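We append the chain.
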Amino acid sequence: MSLANQQDQWTGNASLSLADPGDYFALLKPRVMSLVAFTALTGILIAPGSMHPVLAVASLLAIAVGAGASGALNMWYDADIDAVMQRTSTRPIPAGKVTPEQALSFGLVLSGLSVLTLGVVANWFAGAFLAFTIFFYAVVYTMWLKRSTPQNIVIGGAAGAFPPMIGYAAVTGTVTVESLVLFAIIFIWTPPHFWALALLKVDEYERAGVPMMPNVKGEKRTRIEILAYSLVLAPVGVLPWALGFASWIYGVIAIAGGAGMIALSIQVLRAADGAKLVKPARSLFFFSILYLFVLFAALAAGQIIHRVAG
């Protein structure tokens, strides 16, 4: 079925709402929201100084809700694309469970509440930073970059890299080298992570009219760029240890993880097209998730141990 027909079918169901709380929760993109909360927590933990635990938890919840609001706004605008892609066709709007108007209102209300909450419980610099991040993801990435350039993930990846900086700013009210390093890790990690998925879903992106790197520049160019970004990511991932705000244990983990990213990227580059590309691309995609999680877990654990021991 064509994109236009899918959109007509979805629009025809838009006046009805069969939503339950789970459907509204799905609008928040809970897996993305949990990753945002986790990286923001790391930013809070590595920040110098201290924050009352209640205020820290409230700040973390505000950042997480802000991320969820961005997800709802993204689903509202991208409902036509979601309807024709297999992995997103069951989302609440294309499935006819939530109307576009409800999703838009839900996202806007949560955006306002999250920004106001973070401003009140932490500081207004952090609140403004969260507001900018929501705007960047919902407007700059979703409404502009995603449909206009194969560099959508590269530039738009900044939205996913801001949360640890927001967490850090919630404690300090500022941005420093440490928080910029956390931003850089996620920012450089994003292209090889998402392009590995795009190699597996190239036909879906083509059908939806989304200009992802594989269906615009070709699979070979995508695989070369995946390796290039992984080669940059490996030393950037070691920077927290090199700059002295992470332990040698983190350094070992970062070096091993970076080597794993490079090795899997080489496998993707060398793989033949078609079915033989599926396994290495899938392996890289899932390993990249593990890589980022372990890196930030090691950073967070190191800070917790340091504070308890100190």
